[in-house]
Amino acid sequence: MEDGSVQITGYKGRDVEVEIPAKIGNNAVTSIGDEAFIVGRWTRKRVKNEDVRRQITSIIIPEGVTEIGDKSFYGLVSLEQIVIPSTLNSIGPSAFAGCRSLTSIIRSTRTKNSCKELPRVISKKSRGELGSHAFSGCVRLSHIDIPEGIKAIGNWAFYNCKVLETISIPASVKSIGVMVFQGCEVLSQFIVSSGNKKYSAQDGVLISKNHDTLICYPAGKDASEYVTPENTHVIAKYAFFECNSLNKIDVLNGVKTIENDAFCNCKVLKSISIAASVEFIGGMAFRGCEMLSEFIVSPENKAYSVHDGVLISQSTDLKIFPCWKNNS
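^ that's the sequence the OP posted. Answer follows.
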C-alpha cells in the first residue's frame, strides 16, 4: 500500500489454525482485503486451496489491523473462533457471513501473546460500522454486545443468527439498517444503553428514543399478546417478522402508519385490533399470517373498516383478506 503498510489479499497456506502475521518484512499488516479468505463458490476469484479454507477452525488477526474488508471470511463453514484486535475500526459487508460454526469472538489485548476471551464482544473501541450481512448466517452465536464506538449497523448484519438470544446496543449507534435481526428465531430482548440518543428498548422491544417508531419486536420473546406502546406513531417495516409466539396484537390509538411487511410471517397470529388513528397500512403487511382470522377495527377509523372479518380500505375498496378467507 502507498503508506508502506500491508494488506492481506489472500491465503495460500495449508494450516487450518491460522495466525495472520503482524508484519511482513518490515511492513505492518493493517488490513484484511476483500474476499481474502473467501470460499470459491462465493467469488469469481480462482481459489486453489478451497478444501483447506473449508476446514479452517480458528483465525488470529494481529494488533495493528484496523479494517476487515468485504466478504473477507465469507463461507468459512468450519470457523469456530476468531481473535480480533483492539485496533479494529470497521468490519465490511458479509465479512463473516455464512460462518455457521462460529461460536467465539475473542478480543486480543495489546500485550504480546495475550488474549482475553469476550465471546459476547465483536471488537473493542470500534469507530466504524458493521457492514451489511457482517455476521449473517452465524447460526451458533448466542450473545452479542455491540461495542461502544460502532455508529452504524448495516442491512442484514445479523440475519439468520438463529440462536442469538440477546443483543446489546451501545450509546454510539445512530443508524440501524433493514432486516438486521430478522431470522433471529430465539432473540428474546434488546438491551439499549440509556445514553443512546436514537434508540431505546421497552420490555425488550427495540423502539426509537422518542417512542415514535416501533422498530423490532424480538422474535423469540415469550408472550402470546402484545399492546403497542403509548406515543407510538409508526410500526416499521418487518417490525414483527416471524414473531411466532404472538396470537393477538392490539395497535393502540396514536399509531398512524403500519409499514410494508410489518407483521410478515406471524404464523400463529389470530387477531389484530386496529385503532381509530391508523391512516395507512402498507403492502403485504400481513403476508404469511396463516392463522389470522380476525380484524377488529375501531368504528371511528376513517381509513379502514371490517366486513365479515375482512379488512377494507375505505378510500380504495382494497380488501385485505385473512388467510383463511376466500373470494366467495
